[in-house]
Amino acid sequence: MAPQKETVKEYYPSFEKDYNSKIIDLINHNQEHIECSHKIRGRWENHYLGLEYVPELKAVLSFACKAAIDLTPHSVIVPHKALGFSMDEYWFNIAKPGESTGWHDHKEKAELSGVYYLTVPHRSGDIQFRRNVKSGSEEWSISSKSGKLILFDSKLEHSVTENNSDSNRISLAFNLYTLPLEFDISSNTYSTNKFYS
Questions:
Q1: Is the pTM of this model over 0.85?
Q2: Which CATH number belongs to the domain containing residue 71 in this structure?
């Protein structure tokens, strides 16, 4: 069986008309409320914007939690401030032309991670995965496409190839945790030590 079939699932959820455009408009209109966590190679990796500014995100997070049954038998949740947590476990990735995302994985306590593509211009990069196997390292890629949602094991290393288009590629990324929740809110492992060569 192909490796991606074991650890990665792709979906095309049907949201309301112009769902992606509405979210992108809200991001653009609420720039002053965006917080960024860290820079890698001079680029802000994670852009945080609370649900009070983008309530439409509830639909994609809810869809992801229900779809997670395809990869785990456990109930899962995406923690966020609107639920009383100290931080949001979802963020936007905005890759400008010429930018890429290096190899990394996600928080240790996360069960799954996901990405939902809001806008993917032609030639703006695909997501790549890799894992260790007996013969060395195994890599594969999955095409990025507006309206596609991908769920995968949080320990699976992944990267995104360079944006060779003339426009920004924008996606929503998130972590899903099992219930009962084992979530260390004091741990922020989104730092350079989570990125690999």
A1: yes
A2: 2.60.120.620
